[in-house]
Amino acid sequence: MQLKENKEFKELIPPISPEEYSSLEGSILAEGCRDPLIVWAETIVDGHNRYKICCQYNVNFKTKDITFEGEADAKIWIIKNQLSRRNISTADRIALNLKLKPLLSAEAKKRQGTRTDLGKNFPPDLAESREEIAELSHSSQGTVYKVEVILQKAPELMEKIRNNETSIDRAFKDITQEEKKEKVKEEFKQKGIDDFPKGKFQVIYADPPWEYDFSETQSREIENHYPTMKLKDIKELTDGKRTVQDLLSDDCVLFLWTTSPKLEEGLSVLNEWGFKYVTCAIWDKKVMGMGYYFRQQNEILLVGKRGNLPLPDPENRVSSIISAKRTEHSRKPEEVYEILEKMYPERTKIELFSRNGREGWTMWGNGINTPQL
Questions:
Q1: 281 three-state secondary structure
Q2: How far apart are the C-alpha atoms of 54 and 1, rounded to whole Å?
Q3: Residue 75: which of 117, 107, 115, 111 has the closest Cα?
Q4: How far apart are CA 105 and CA 233, in angstroms?
Q5: Cα dihedral sign, 233-235-241-242
Q6: Closest of 269, 267, 251 to residue 352, by C-alpha
Q7: 55: CB partners within 8 A, 6+ apart
Q8: Are strands 298-306 and 248-258 parallel, antiparallel or unpaired?
Q9: How far apart are CA 197 and CA 208, in angstroms?
Q10: Distance (Å, rounded) from C-alpha 256 to C-alpha 281?
Q11: In degrees, to the nearest 5, what angle opens at C-alpha 351 toward C-alphas 345 and 353?
């Protein structure tokens, strides 16, 4: 029997994994096609994979006819049938409910009061709201929003989510990170500072925008304050033509900010940029912050050297504990500039990821911590 396939119907159905398809194929070859294919006017509405396998191996199959008033009615049935699957992912459940709501709303408006079989969860006077979708999908409004963004801007990521190659949070973060990078690139171009400055520098001061994997709540994510960078991008920092190494004098020193959770990554960046770790200072913020083991009240200023830049004079060597109350998010104490200027009064200085200008310094940044260009 030759059946028809409707592309729009088929696209409503989340694809099964290769493993699931292989298992279904094996079952049909061993036991035949046990469940009938559901058809409407000789068009498949449920059983596309079974139909494909049966046709490939000449396996007989049965059909069961179902009646709909139109394609919209058929689509509603298909989606609701998929939502009844036990192994459907959260992302697919949300995606299906997002497709279902406008269909039900349109049908309800068209047939006010004439339908009684739309289900208790979908009254005719549906109002479009993320809250309802979240409740129907057994999820949060924040997760619904993330899936909306993924479907709109990178629907190909749904397959990776489905196959556990990435998560909803990770896919959403990747999309928003790319958008932020593009925005900052444009800001850099408008300000004419998209390129690294010319010259070589003896004192390099940097506060990379580290990317963190976890956050207790969405509102506390670091990305809400400034665009972050992956470790690989920080290590390979470039303006597209030159790298950090092109900014370094043969003899120079690096002061690199990191945090306790990012200590290992900070040291790896220090080494990748061509420096050897020598010591560190601690910034006591005087205010507790976030933390999963200890509530963090400090940040770490790593010091690395390259070549043989002379050490600071003894009278310009200060305590390794810098006590200064934390101000706005990620902003470092102004005292650090003064410390470095006393240590190296005659040396050329550059700050990477700068927030402001400062006399005697070359700055690379646009007022916020910036992603790779």
A1: strand
A2: 11
A3: 107
A4: 46
A5: positive
A6: 269
A7: none
A8: antiparallel
A9: 17
A10: 10
A11: 165
CB 334 within 8 A of CB 327: no
Each residue's pLDDT expressed in tens, for the chain with a length of 373 residues = 799 999 999 999 999 888 999 999 999 999 999 999 999 999 999 999 999 999 999 999 999 999 999 999 999 999 999 998 878 889 999 999 999 888 877 777 776 655 455 444 444 333 347 888 888 888 999 999 999 999 999 999 999 998 889 999 999 988 887 777 677 656 555 554 567 888 999 999 999 988 876 554 444 444 444 467 889 989 998 877 889 999 999 999 999 999 999 999 999 999 999 999 999 999 999 988 888 899 999 999 999 999 999 999 999 999 999 999 887 666 799 999 999 999 999 999 999 988 778 899 998 875 433 333 3
Q: Which two tokens stand for residue 372?
A: 């790779």
Question: Rounded CA gap, 239 and 350, in Å?
Answer: 15
Cβ(225)–Cβ(210) under 8 Å? no
Q: What domains does the chain contain, in order, with CATH numbers?
A: 7-172 (no CATH), 192-364 (3.40.50.150)
Residue 241 per-residue DSSP state: S
**Complete edge-to-edge strand list for the sheet that includes strand 63-65:** 43-46, 37-40, 63-65
Would you state the structure tokens that stand for residue 185, as one six-digit string?
């690139």
**Which tokens is 117 given?**
């079989």
Rounded CA-CA distance 136/225 in Å is 32
Helices 71-83/90-110 angle, 10° precision: 150
What's the CA gap between 321 and 339, in Å, rounded?
A: 12
User: What Rg value do the Cα atoms of the chain yield, rounded?
Assistant: 29
Token reading at 211: 């990317």
The token pair at 85 is: 């699957």
- pTM recorded for the entire structure: 0.55
| Nearest C-alpha neighbor of 230 from the set 208, 257, 204, 245 | 208
